[in-house]
Design a protein that fits this description.
single chain, alpha+beta, Alpha-Beta Plaits, 10 strands, elongated, monoatomic cation transmembrane transporter activity, RCK_C, transmembrane helix
Length: about 600
């Protein structure tokens, strides 16, 4: 085996900096974007790179492309195009579980061709939960396939972050970049075989679990609640009823209603026992008809949480499940810091995180991406929350989206930008930035909203880690590492090299995500291909697709995190269903590479 030793001082420093940065990201000791900035600074301070090279990531074409795509995606969402498409796709699902899985996997794949995977998953998530409820299938049978569909779709398009980065790696080493056709031809079969696997085998490995809300309140038939067969009400305990138990207050015996929960700040008591004592200012969540709930007024109870007689009496409420979206602006803040109850008039009674339900001091827990919140409040307030960025409200009724002139303009501008980028008439970064500017000029999105749409954490992460690739090339370490791979794998043929790089990338992706994996392995993979005289474009495509093989852990991709709460998934669920999906992708790759790239 060819050794990469001896190493120069710059190469040793580069290894130390890259290893430290990667360790910080994997461990989660500090935020990934901050770790990336520290890597950038270290490369410049140690003179591994010049200051200009260390900062060049912020002007890199991959970063500019991602900025443009973020604005385009936001414009499509704001003009109603994405929701309109999601509703149309959901309408095709029918009432059969297999058909629903197929439709939502394909819907996720199609939307991921032209927009961010997370955005595609987020817009389809409420529709998937709604359809699952309508046909009586657990959401856990649909949401993981939806997540996998968006990831598979990301393999078949140039407009995925890892794919953009690998194309940039090729250009940086004097090779031709990648085109949309490269990914459609290579990634298209991945979508088809991945879909077939899920329909024939994978769906049998998916758990059949109820939603977070039904797990937290198992005595309630959520379908009847959401269909409004009955109504939910908030009833406040006055001093006149304080000290009695639920049984002594004879709430159910007198009115035939059911006490589902008691909100007693800072605790939520779900499914309270009959001998649970009531306290003044307790708020009861009661299920029953309006005329029966009103019988409680004047018997030591006040309808509504706030008031005296006449205030808040018409307050039928809903039980809502709300998911914290990845990269929501308030991640890390608590509900108290957000003044959530004051601002939205909703009460969070439970929080689901990583398979565990929390019911006490929920307001003091810093929110994390993928958290599922069970909350109660007026229906109008729930609808208001659905318009807030970062909150994804589930179980919302299907609504017809009005698309007007702005939607048509947004679609036209997006189509033109994607077309000129895919055909190579204009550089991808320029095409995306021009498309974003055109959307602002035509009023499809405001400049302020465009700034808010840009995922600055992702931009900082990529711009901070891109200099590692530059350093691998300038120090020669990438060539040495590529030669090491060449010596150990190419002896068995080009497919052996591609298989080794694919598996290494998949493993790293499960730990740090595809974006970081592409930044670390991409330059080495291109150098290895050049050293071995193997088509570097083919190797780059294989590695970039491996960055989307994020099937084994929920932390491998934010879209998996997004599905965790609503699907009530555990970590092991992803590995059980995802290991077969990963094997299918590898086998498909080994068939596609010789056919498409003549290896």
């Amino acid at each position: 085996m060819q050794l990469i030793l001896p190493l120069s001082t710059s190469e040793v420093l580069l290894l130390a900096i890259a290893f430290t940065g990667l360790s910080l990201i994997i461990s989660g000791w500090i935020r990934a974007d901050l770790a990336a900035l520290l890597v950038l600074i270290a490369l410049g301070v140690t003179r591994v790179l010049t200051p200009q090279e260390a900062l060049s990531g912020f002007s890199n074409s991959a970063v500019i492309t991602i900025i443009g795509l973020s604005v385009i995606t936001a414009a499509l969402e704001q003009t109603g195009v994405v929701k309109w498409a999601a509703n149309r796709l959901a309408a095709l699902s029918g009432g059969n579980e297999t058909r629903v899985i197929a439709v939502f996997m394909l819907a996720g794949a199609l939307l991921s061709l032209v927009m961010n995977n997370i955005a595609a998953g987020a817009v389809l998530l409420p529709a998937a939960v709604r359809v699952a409820r309508q046909i009586g299938v657990p959401a856990s049978k649909i949401l993981m396939p939806l997540s996998y569909g968006t990831l598979l779709g990301g393999m078949a398009t140039l407009f995925t972050t890892a794919n953009i980065i690998l194309s940039g790696n090729l250009v940086a080493q004097g090779q031709a970049g990648l085109t949309m056709a490269n990914f459609l031809l290579s990634g298209g079969p991945m979508v088809l075989t991945g879909l077939l696997y899920m329909l024939l085998i994978g769906r049998k490995l998916l758990p059949a679990r109820e939603t977070v809300a039904s797990t937290a309140v198992p005595a309630v038939d959520l379908r009847s609640i959401y269909r409004l067969d009955e109504r939910l009400w908030e009833v406040r305990v006055t001093p006149a009823a304080a000290g009695k138990t639920i049984a002594e207050a004879a709430i159910s015996a007198t009115t035939g209603t059911t006490v589902l929960a008691i909100w007693r700040d800072p605790e939520a008591i779900l499914n309270p026992a009959p001998d649970t004592p009531l306290r003044a200012s307790d708020v009861l969540l009661i299920l029953g008809r309006e005329d029966r709930v009103r019988q409680l007024a004047g018997a030591g109870f006040a309808i509504g949480r706030n008031g005296t007689s006449g205030e808040g009496l018409d307050l039928p409420i809903e039980l809502a499940e709300v998911v914290v979206a990845p990269r929501a602006p308030f991640i890390g803040q608590t509900l108290q810091q957000l003044r959530f109850r004051t601002k939205f008039g909703l009460t969070v009674v439970a929080l689901w995180r990583e398979g565990r339900s929390y019911r006490t001091n929920v307001g003091t827990m810093p929110l994390a991406a993928g958290d599922a919140l069970l909350m109660t409040g007026p229906a109008a307030r729930v609808r208001q929350l659905a318009d807030e960025p970062g909150f994804i409200v589930l179980h919302t009724p299907a609504s017809e989206v009005e698309t007007g002139r702005q939607a048509v303009i947004a679609v036209a501008i997006t189509a033109i930008a994607l077309f000129v980028a895919a055909t190579g008439w204009v550089a991808t970064a320029e095409a995306m930035l021009a498309g974003a500017a055109a959307l602002v000029l035509t009023g499809c999105i405001t400049m302020d909203d465009a700034y808010r749409a840009i995922e600055w954490r992702v931009v900082t992460l990529i711009a901070g880690l891109l200099p590692i690739g530059t350093a691998l090339v300038t120090t020669g370490l990438g060539t040495k590492a590529g030669a090491l791979l060449t010596g150990s794998l190419v002896a068995y043929g080009p497919l052996a090299l591609i298989t080794g790089l694919f598996l290494a990338t998949v493993l790293l992706t499960q730990l740090v995500g595809g974006q970081v994996a592409s930044l670390i392995i991409g330059p080495i993979a291109v150098s290895a291909a050049i050293s071995a005289h193997v088509n570097p474009q083919a190797v780059a495509v294989a590695v970039s697709m491996a960055c989307s093989v994020a099937f084994l852990t929920p932390i491998a991709h934010p879209v998996n995190v997004l599905m965790m709460g609503p699907g009530n998934y555990r970590f092991s669920d992803f590995f059980r269903a995802g290991i077969g999906q990963t094997i299918v992708c590898l086998l498909t790759l080994l068939v596609v590479m010789p056919l498409v790239w003549q290896l």
